[in-house]
Design goal:
Blueprint lengths: L1 H13 L2 H18 L5 H15 L1 H4 L12 H8 L1 H19 L4 H18 L15 H21 L5 H25 L1 H7 L4 H29 L10 H19 L6 H25 L1
Helix pairs in contact: 2-3, 2-8, 2-13, 3-6, 7-8, 8-9, 9-11, 9-13, 10-11, 11-12, 12-13
Length: 289
């Protein structure tokens, strides 16, 4: 029984099904903060687009056909290469099926976000993606997540925010994602150094990367307070503010806890799971306050 649960858990995490669900949750969070009803086509698009992008390595033939890897996740992908490719092609169909229902302004956000996401893994320079450029990986990930989960729902919802307020919403999401992404690089410091990969964590060390993540969270909290003041267009206050602040404190505790090496599931499930529980905490507090 335990082996069966472990296999399903591996599938959920390593097939990127779980992170795709987290993207849906982040899109839903944007609708909550804007006070708009979610557009089903946007949430479905976020699911399939995330699943495809995170499985892009298999599609681009960058996962070895056999052998082993220093990463447990890559070992799983090697064993399930055909499954990942199949899921990726299904995701492409899902993406195309959703895009045709989007409004024209949303197409621009989808196109720009999609281009950045593809360039993240697609071979460009010396047969490597943009993520191989030293220090750029973290900001690419955060930028793609913020653009996909904020701009796409925003434009499709038709909410008319001032540029300053929209930028604040985007930047707040960018900082939060950047903060909870750094622990993944901390986890892989030794392996990345062995492979010659240059990330912020390999350059700053575990302690320095942790400080940087906390700095991102501090900046996020400052913007969170600034966003909280715009109660004229953001419903559900102060519950939304307290819900997001609570998840930020949770993230800070987990980042500090991750300074010592933890099991791979801690990063792939717990840290990614913060993205999932954010809207759930907001909705829960709204029902109480």
């Amino acid at each position: 029984m335990s082996k069966l649960i472990s296999r399903w858990f591996d599938f959920l995490v390593f097939s990127n099904t779980f992170i795709a669900i987290c993207a849906v949750a982040q899109g839903w969070l944007t609708y909550l903060l804007l006070g708009r009803e979610p557009d089903p086509e946007v949430l479905v698009l976020l699911y399939f687009a995330t699943a495809f992008v995170y499985n892009a390595q298999a599609v681009l033939n960058k996962i070895p056909k056999d052998g082993t890897s220093v990463y447990y996740r890559i070992d799983w992908l090697i064993r399930h290469r055909r499954l990942i490719r199949t899921l990726s092609f299904v995701a492409v169909g899902g993406i195309l099926g959703c895009v045709i229902f989007l409004k024209k302004p949303t197409w621009i956000a989808v196109s720009v976000t999609g281009l950045l996401a593809i360039l993240y893994s697609a071979p460009l320079f010396r047969n490597e993606g943009l993520r191989q450029i030293p220090g750029l990986k973290l900001f690419l990930i955060a930028g793609v997540w913020a653009s996909a989960c904020v701009l796409i729902p925003y434009y499709e919802s038709g909410a008319g925010l001032e540029t300053e307020k929209l930028l604040m919403l985007w930047l707040k999401r960018f900082l939060f994602v950047a903060a909870i992404t750094l622990p993944f690089d901390i986890k892989d410091i030794e392996a990345d150094r062995g492979l010659g990969l240059h990330t912020l964590a390999t350059r700053l060390g575990a302690g320095g990367a942790c400080v940087l993540a906390m700095t991102f969270l501090a900046a996020y909290t400052g913007l969170l307070y600034g966003f909280h003041r715009y109660e004229d267009y953001q419903p559900g206050q102060p519950a939304s503010f307290y819900g997001l602040l609570l998840t930020a404190l949770l993230a800070a505790g987990l980042i500090a806890y991750s300074l010592r090496k933890r099991p791979v599931y801690f990063y792939l499930f717990v840290f990614d799971g913060i993205l999932l529980i954010q809207p759930l905490v907001v909705v829960s507090l709204r029902s109480l306050l």
